[in-house]
Amino acid sequence: MERGMHASLISILVAGAAAFLAVSGTAAPNLAPWLADNNAAAIPVDVELVLAVDVSYSMDPEEQALQREGYIAGITSRDFMQALRGGQHGKVAVTYFEWAGPYDQKIVVPWRLIDGPEAADAFANEIARAPYRRASRTSISGALNFAKPLFDGSGYRGFRRVVDVSGDGANNSGPFVTIVRDDVLAAGITINGLPIMLKRPNAFTMDIENLDIYYEDCVIGGPGAFVIPIREREQFKEATRTKLVLEIAGPVQQRGLVPVQARAPRISCTIGEQMWRERWGN
Description:
Blueprint: H1 2-22, E1 43-54, H2 61-75, H3 78-85, E2 92-99, E3 105-114, H4 117-129, H5 140-147, E4 156-167, H6 177-186, E5 190-195, H7 211-219, H8 236-249, H9 271-280
Parallel strand pairs: 1-2, 1-4, 4-5
Antiparallel strand pairs: 2-3
Helix pairs in contact: 1-8, 2-4, 2-8, 3-8, 5-6
């Protein structure tokens, strides 16, 4: 029963977003004309999507495997295909990279055009074949800094540009996350979040309580931006699928979502840096 209700909800969201994009004369909801790739050879797509995936040491091997499985299952799901077909162009461009410290980012799958099941399967297979790795520190700001220029000269011209950040901790190195977030938003790019909240917070692992609130107030932003937290291991595939579907379907106002700049943060946006200094003294 719950699974059926979930599928119905996704169908409603996809239909609503598709209708929004199909309105006569509707252009990019958040992509200013000067941000589009004006190269004559640029391929028009509904969305240019950057998947930024945390591989810091706080992510244990099981979490890493679940995270990958979630993206693989999501991008090959029937719901994703339904959202894809509901777009004005019926195709999206996606790239997938892993991140840890401020200078540790690695593209696992470069930009790929997804226009149907075969392309989605090929993208998923590229993710599955990549070797696992882990690295030190957690720099969401570094990931956002890395993601922003990936849109330039991508070869695609999307109605929307989205960075999708998944991770299990707060920013603890590199520039302050709010500074970089605001810079990315100023470029007309939306940031969504998938905070992974499986561990009980403690000082040793530097996990924090209310990571979802941290993401809402300090990380995400842009029209239709949202956070989908994962609190149970069984939620990985469903949450990741839902997130991908919403990103492809288009901006649908999320109930209870408050714009990032609408109020003061409910949690310190430098909590990760503070915890690191308290533990290591630098």
